[in-house]
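quick one before i forget lol
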Amino acid sequence: MSYAARREQINKLIDDGALWLWKWVHRFVRETGELCIFGYRAVVLFFRKPFRAEELINHMEFVGNKSLSIIFLSGLFTGLALAYQIYLGFKQVNMANMVGPVVALAIFRELGPVLTGLLVAARAGGAMAARIGTMRVTEQIDALEVIGVDPLQYLVSPRVWASVLMLPILTAFFDFIAIIGAWLITIKILEMDEAQFWDRISTWIYPYHIYEGLFKAAIFGLCFAVICTHRGYTTTGGAAGVGSSTNRGVVLSMVFIIILDFFVTNLINTFYAWKELLTR
């Protein structure tokens, strides 16, 4: 291959790569904008008549009550595994008495809201996307519009608000069960001092550590509910499209929960830093 032909091939690869990157950025910005507008409308429409209080309660029961079993099992074994691994590490440096506060801090600030968000997004978020997607491809949403019912207010808003309200409650339940799991393995199995365990937790853990996790849980609830309902609402392509929308909705929700956790954590830390600076 001559030098000119090789150079032309390289230039073509660069042009194709730049074009692909531009299309990806353009699609990402457009879809993000659509998602934000969709979420804003879903949040606001709930406060307009006719109010859908009964739908809200039904979806709170679906998101909250029906998730208790998986939250219980996940929280229990998360506390057991985390406490045991931290105990093994801290025992080597003679700091086993700090297992309690370290476990509690990790659960309250990070593991509780993140794992709860991921679990509920997989269970309830997938069901939301599948249900609304099925209604879209079977033209039930079109029928609602014909009879004068706003499908966004009737189908999406109650699901979004139910997720926002129930995620902090589920996270609090996860936190409680995880601490019980940590207590079981450290006190009942590893035979650490129980009074010291609780005293260290009460000394090092403050209410704002718990509030931080609950606040993040509400953000995660809004995130997965908007993404999954949007994927279902914009479904095309029949049964195959419903499966694809459900899969994409769940995957995107879980990815965005992990990404949001990083940014929200940094925003909260920045807020505390500014608050401390202003109160000096």
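fyi The chain has a mean pLDDT of 91.
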